[in-house]
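Thread: adenosine-5'-triphosphate complex, take 2
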Amino acid sequence: MRPKIVVVGSSNTDLVVKLPRLPQPGETIIGGTFSMASGGKGGNQAVAAARAGGDVTFIARVGDDHFGRQAIEGYKNDRVDVKSIGVSPGASSGIALIFVDEFGENCIGVASGANNEFSPSDLERASDTLTSADILLLQFEIPLPTVEAAIQTASEAGVRVILNPAPARNLDPELYKLLSVITPNEIETEILTGIHVSDDASIAYAAASLLDRGVSAVIITLGARGAFLAEAGKSEFIPAFKVIPVDTTAAGDVFSGALAVSLGENSSVSDAVRFASAAAALSVTRPGAQPSAPRRDEIEHLLRNG
Ligand code: ATP
Ligand code: RIB
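Output below.
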């Protein structure tokens, strides 16, 4: 049985320019190459979860434009259920402008467009889907009241909730208790905890401070180093798979999407982090956000062969 995953989040179209290095403020660099692909943290996580083996429904908003229609076609091709994606007349779809350098590092600016019109009432229309899921997966690229309403509704129905707190924002402190897992990267960890993450001790200290808020498991992603997992009374570093990065855009999204599937299949959190790490490592070897998410057989092959 494929686990039922509901993703509540953003859908963007990514306009990507690959350059030898990232521009400084005020600087123009020529000689880049252009590509366009579907993105948005919500969309990326939905596609990553579907390719990893989840039965995925994506609740989102797009604009009434070519970008939005193209994004929805892409989700359908990945067998993501799109019946709860609303279309906002008069709004543009979310657009992300992305620079990627020769080492695969990026910087991103987002015009949220229709994502900003995603309201709690959109969730009411999808409440049966939301409350019958195995896992709810969310991020912070849509209005905070919608994120908070989704967490409340799902957890009241006994659905396990995974929050990828990206980009970092301040969640109602009471809601941390309703989270099964939180997956911040280093920068998000610093913003959420106020603790400067610099070495193993500070990573563990920051994770402990998030556990103290009531989250059941904290997974701090550390890029090419891997991830740090902390649960009550135990913690471990889980190293990343060694790959040559081409484009790290959406590594965190692929990680969270794959993690949701593995947890939905009742793996331990530690095993789910290994599965997610394999998926994310494969994604950084490929360009683009959604195009880079690997299929289940690819993830299992990397897990078997290292
Ligand atoms: P992004 O914002 O680029 O989507 P992120 O900052 O949210 O990513 P990271 O911590 O950079 O998240 O990466 C998430 C996971 O992806 C890591 O924990 C690791 O497992 C994997 N990963 C990222 N970069 C690499 C890399 N260069 N090599 C192997 N695995 C990687
Ligand atoms: O996490 C990567 C995503 O962030 C990109 O696909 C872009 O759309 C932005 O939302």
